[in-house]
Amino acid sequence: MNKTEILWDTWGVPHVFAKDNESLFKAFGWAQMHSHGNLILRLYAEARGRAAEYWGEQYLESDQEIRSLGIPTLAAQWYEAQKPEMRRYLDAFARGMNEYGKSHAIDESLQPVFPITGVDILAHALRNVHFTFLPQAGAVPHLTQRWQAGSNAWAIAPKRSASGHAMLLANPHLQWSGQFLLYEAHLTSPDLNLYGATLVGMPILVFAFNDHLGWAHTVNTIDAVDLYELTLVSQGNQLGYEWDGGFKPLEVTTQTLQVKQPDGSFRSEPLTIYRSIQGSVIHQKDNKALAMRIAGLDRPDMLEQYWDMARSQNLQEFETALKRLQIPMFTVLYADKEGHILHVFNGQVPKRPPGSWDGVVPGNTSATLWTQTHPYEELPRVLDPRSGWLQNANDPPWTTTFPAELNPQDYPAYMAPQFMHLRAQRSAKLLSEGETLSFEEMIERKNSTHVELADRVLDDLLSAASTSDDPIVQQAVEVLQAWNRNTNADSQGGVLFAAWAQAMNFPQDFATRWDANSPLTTPFGLANPSQAVEVLTSVARQVQETYGSLAIPWGDVYRLKYGKHDLPATGGSGSLGVFRVFDFIPAGKQFQCGFGDTFIAAVEFSQPLRAKVLNTYGNASQPDSPHAGDQLELMGQLREIWRDRAAIEAHLEHRETL
What we know:
Layout: E1 5-9, E2 14-17, H1 21-48, H2 51-55, H3 60-69, H4 71-81, H5 84-103, H6 118-137, H7 141-144, E3 150-156, E4 167-175, E5 182-189, E6 192-199, E7 207-209, E8 213-218, E9 225-235, E10 238-243, E11 246-249, E12 251-260, E13 266-275, E14 280-285, E15 288-294, H8 302-311, H9 315-322, E16 331-336, E17 341-345, E18 361-362, E19 381-383, E20 389-392, H10 422-432, H11 439-446, H12 452-465, H13 471-482, H14 494-503, E21 510-512, E22 524-526, H15 529-547, H16 554-557, E23 558-562, E24 565-568, E25 582-587, E26 590-597, E27 599-604, E28 610-615, E29 639-640, H17 645-650, E30 652-657
Parallel strand pairs: 2-5, 9-18, 23-26
Antiparallel strand pairs: 1-2, 1-30, 3-4, 3-20, 4-26, 4-27, 5-6, 6-7, 7-8, 8-16, 9-10, 9-15, 10-11, 12-13, 14-15, 16-17, 17-19, 21-22, 23-24, 25-26, 27-28, 28-29
């Protein structure tokens, strides 16, 4: 092939046929700008810490945070540390975006962000993974109180597959907006045929499969971030902190931010940035400060590792890439055409000294300062389990399969906590039912909307409520008894149960808490049934007053909205133990999905390979695109994908030659 083409299919998915890898990256940058240009330009500007310079005061706080964390400086250092080949690929991705911007109309207010550089791409990647996902996984509230993350993933071995071929399910759950949108693409070059998705603005697919293998990610329970409390002191004109019985000065730098004013002029905003030996100072009050230490900031090859994973053709090559541990977090579930399945609790886990690592750590002593992380060989890993299946639904690695293959006692206590929430239990139950599972059955079970919480507490609630002579409680009992315990669009009773569950205080209100010895049957029961009935009484009155009926269908209240599309929801919150996850935000009397199922891929490594996917909210966010929200109509199904040129040509929307 001596040219590079982008074939756009009827779902707005770009199929890149590139003459070489550098052309592939350029075309992928072009395609992303076509589908998500406005969003990506804003995200790159934010990752530069210059959004207030372009668009005003509302971005100042974000710029201050980005600069204080040192993201632009670190991105520049990472760019210089890239191998020459990877640097060329990053430059090519940026060049594709820049060339698209020159030849297509872009909103005038976004023009100042051009030109995009390889440094911008790395700043965006750092912001997404190291400074957003990683603090969230370690439960650092300062940076993470504004969002959520999650996911489901399955890997099924040939012994449990009806076809005798391994299968993989990728099912990330993220916000339906901003930096968390996922972009679906098909990338081919002389040595690559890769299909999957990535976060918008990222140059490599991060959920993907090729002809030989595939992998899925979930946000794991890794603790790779610590907050240290510093006691501030001054020595002469130097500000520092107590350290090993003495004084250690803070690193102090000053930057000036430009803030655009409504009249087009600029004002200067000084910013003083402090760093301790632990990391960036993110909060200061009186003589105390908090510094944040993040693992992996010294490993600049995260994108190169994804590129190596994408080109792997067998388990050995894939694990060789994984062992580099350039990706600082995420559980990896893997399957391949040879029949192997793999679970790795991937990431850079600090080697911590003995002591408590819950909450804020004393920052006045070198005894708490970790400097090394565990090598790949010391991370929890399961290959080809006896059960024939692996799952993760953001639970710790110990519950990836049953019978259990990992013993938490064989690892440091800080490696991962011990729990298994209801969504993960539902996941394991869906996989353990029956002798084998077909490709179609895997997709059907992925779309389960059953409420596991109802199986644990509803009988107790109904038993206690059945003795009430309050008419609203009697009516609630009738509705909940008739409810099918699902969150399908037409399920009647789910709205009432979800409102009651939200008003309760689980897990404290369980009679029996989760027990590692009974991981799939605990927690259960109500600790105080009479109090639960009081909550039901209050909630039932509210539901009746708001909707006029306790039996209002789920989809009349819970909605999927994106672009011009507005459809009834089928699925619910993971806190209810629903595997098909949607979380909702209030929108008047209704609730609108803001988080949950995004890109979904089901893959069977047969010959030829079988795969179906869905990108729930569509594959574009540009305001004039017909593909913003166009896949919502398929919710509950997955689409056939087109990977060979003939099939793509048969479903072609338009063609571009670069």
